[in-house]
Amino acid sequence: MGRIRILSDQVANQIAAGEVVERPASVVKELLENSLDAGATRIRVEIEGGGRKLIRIVDNGHGMVADDALLAFERHATSKLRTSDDLLSIATLGFRGEALPSIASVSRLLLETRAEGDEAGTAVEIAGGAIVRVSEMGMPPGTTIAVKDLFFNTPARRKFLKTEQTELSHIAALVTHYALAHPEKHFELHSATQALLVAPGVASAGERLYQIFGRETSGLMLPTAAEMDFMRAGLPEPPPWKRNEDYVPAAPGYMRLSGFVSKPELQKLNRNSVYVFVNRRLIRDRLVLHALTEAYRNIIPPTSFPVVLLFLEMPPEEVDVNVHPAKTEVRFRQPSFVHNFVRDTVRTTLMEARPAASFMAALDPVSPASHSLLLDVSPLPGGPEDGLLGPNRPESEGDPSAGDVDYFLRPREVPASPGRLEFAGRPLTVGAEEHISAVDPLLGLRRPDGYVEVQAERGPEKWHEGSKPMVAPVAPEPNLSELGSLRSLGQIKDSFILAVNEDGLWIVDQHVAHERILFERVLRERETEQVQRQRLLMPLLVDLLPAQMVAFAEIAKELEANGFEVEPFGPRTLAVKAAPVGLEGRELEQMLEEVLAVPDREQQTENADTRRRRIAASIACHAAVKINMPLDSQKIDWLLQELAKTEYPTSCPHGRPIALRYSHKDIQRAFQRI
């Protein structure tokens, strides 16, 4: 007798459930996507026991007829695919036909559905994959699915579930994601004791952001929008011998990006507040996450992460969503093209905005230290009277996720809709021209007169900004373009520059301000091959470890391009004969030790651009003026003027803020005049 046997349908469904249904949030995801595919405009999610006891999703979609209600529980039964060619252009969230039979095989499921034209609805009850009851019932058009006792027949899977609060937090995060992705739809999330989310439909993504996360968070977000066609991406075409006589090349289509990115002052300790959607599908793609990391490089600290809400739209043929059982990962047809588009769009938005950090916000230690924007769903019995999400709920000092969360049920006024994102308007500048001063008074470095074009990385050919803001501000937001109008008052402890203008009082960290100026100058001179170096009177000998000698061999060419003249002087010694202007003595030695002390893990993933920026940041840091260094008024004025000319005067290359603004309104409020 042979060894190979065909598995029963029940076992096959339970195996599939192991891939599709990882936890209760996986069930919610699959059913929620089905509701969205059905055209629902109102979706209600009810949870009991963290999803173990009950998951009920009610929608007002187009529903199903009786025959489809039964056929939906057969494996690979779907209304969204017809032929294998349809896999190349999937435009729906679900398509495999595995979700319902997989969920039904590990739970007790009740489906109630009615199509628009039917007189009565259909109820289908299934327990452990076996149909228990099929009957008619009266109900409004739409679908209701109740999943009870999840994993009741697979106790091993049930044992590995986390606590009720943990599972509920995953569900809350998921529903929040899809509420952000579909602002025009009404979403509700209810647990056994309270309503966690009630988000009526609004007209734009900006209003939804304001509605869910509140005024403070939405005020720290920058709208971004860009569009580019695939014409320049080199789309592959079939070879001539496979083309028909009437062959017409397909239109390349457009790639569009819209959404919001956070100002540098809003930082999180993990990526839980990065929301990325590709064709309205929630994804966790390494390529896009890396692009966002590169966009914020030298703007925020490397250990911090931004808050991002981005919608990436492209032709379905350009993205393969059939690469992961849970459909949370995708594969782009042209990954480098997508990566550069996202990176350059976000970086250009930040460079254009030049946001000014508020002095009062910088005093609040909660905002930059919080882990996520998502709500905390771990209440203790006998908590506050106003409930988990009440308006007066105090933040828990021991809860890392409390942070600056704006709780969902806090009563808020939603502003009138200013309109949807439009892909028309003034172009965002990718390159810029800046006047370079003749003398650097802090370093004594003479520079050529005239204008030098600042080269930027190659990015999208067409840049567009939304013609209207997402949430209409009361007054234009001050930015760091006002640095040029500052009038210096002096220094505080020879470390911080005090200056004023019509907007209020400004405090500038002189070290990081000069560091930003030098960082952009080093990159600019490196790009135009105009690096100025100085020869040392006596070569500087630097002793290194064997691992550092290996690191030196990898970055030797980059060091030379930045003005260094270094050569081995023995098996473990380097002789430095020349260095960039401004680096000398102990600072030069520390800079070399710093760039050669990169962990192996980072070296393996470091590309040429990352290495170039890391070395430039190190040169700028060690060449810049230090704290506790007195500066005369002429040097202070030069520093402020040069800082105003930089591309991004918000933060130093290591992510520390450069200037803090104490606005005139804050001063009036402090003196109780308003």
From TrEMBL:
<dbReference type="Pfam" id="PF01119">
    <property type="entry name" value="DNA_mis_repair"/>
</dbReference>
<dbReference type="InterPro" id="IPR020667">
    <property type="entry name" value="DNA_mismatch_repair_MutL"/>
</dbReference>
<dbReference type="GO" id="GO:0140664">
    <property type="term" value="F:ATP-dependent DNA damage sensor activity"/>
</dbReference>
<dbReference type="InterPro" id="IPR037198">
    <property type="entry name" value="MutL_C_sf"/>
</dbReference>
<dbReference type="GO" id="GO:0032300">
    <property type="term" value="C:mismatch repair complex"/>
</dbReference>
<dbReference type="GO" id="GO:0016887">
    <property type="term" value="F:ATP hydrolysis activity"/>
</dbReference>
<dbReference type="InterPro" id="IPR002099">
    <property type="entry name" value="MutL/Mlh/PMS"/>
</dbReference>
<feature type="domain" description="MutL C-terminal dimerisation">
    <location>
        <begin position="488"/>
        <end position="631"/>
    </location>
</feature>
<keyword id="KW-0234">DNA repair</keyword>
<comment type="function">
    <text>This protein is involved in the repair of mismatches in DNA. It is required for dam-dependent methyl-directed DNA mismatch repair. May act as a 'molecular matchmaker', a protein that promotes the formation of a stable complex between two or more DNA-binding proteins in an ATP-dependent manner without itself being part of a final effector complex.</text>
</comment>
<dbReference type="Pfam" id="PF13589">
    <property type="entry name" value="HATPase_c_3"/>
</dbReference>
<dbReference type="InterPro" id="IPR014721">
    <property type="entry name" value="Ribsml_uS5_D2-typ_fold_subgr"/>
</dbReference>
<feature type="domain" description="DNA mismatch repair protein S5">
    <location>
        <begin position="209"/>
        <end position="351"/>
    </location>
</feature>
<keyword id="KW-0227">DNA damage</keyword>
<protein>
    <recommendedName>
        <fullName>DNA mismatch repair protein MutL</fullName>
    </recommendedName>
</protein>
<dbReference type="Pfam" id="PF08676">
    <property type="entry name" value="MutL_C"/>
</dbReference>
<dbReference type="InterPro" id="IPR014762">
    <property type="entry name" value="DNA_mismatch_repair_CS"/>
</dbReference>
<comment type="similarity">
    <text>Belongs to the DNA mismatch repair MutL/HexB family.</text>
</comment>
<dbReference type="GO" id="GO:0030983">
    <property type="term" value="F:mismatched DNA binding"/>
</dbReference>
<dbReference type="GO" id="GO:0005524">
    <property type="term" value="F:ATP binding"/>
</dbReference>
<dbReference type="InterPro" id="IPR013507">
    <property type="entry name" value="DNA_mismatch_S5_2-like"/>
</dbReference>
<dbReference type="InterPro" id="IPR042121">
    <property type="entry name" value="MutL_C_regsub"/>
</dbReference>
<dbReference type="InterPro" id="IPR038973">
    <property type="entry name" value="MutL/Mlh/Pms-like"/>
</dbReference>
<dbReference type="GO" id="GO:0006298">
    <property type="term" value="P:mismatch repair"/>
</dbReference>
<dbReference type="InterPro" id="IPR042120">
    <property type="entry name" value="MutL_C_dimsub"/>
</dbReference>
<dbReference type="InterPro" id="IPR036890">
    <property type="entry name" value="HATPase_C_sf"/>
</dbReference>
<feature type="region of interest" description="Disordered">
    <location>
        <begin position="376"/>
        <end position="405"/>
    </location>
</feature>
<dbReference type="InterPro" id="IPR020568">
    <property type="entry name" value="Ribosomal_Su5_D2-typ_SF"/>
</dbReference>
<dbReference type="InterPro" id="IPR014790">
    <property type="entry name" value="MutL_C"/>
</dbReference>
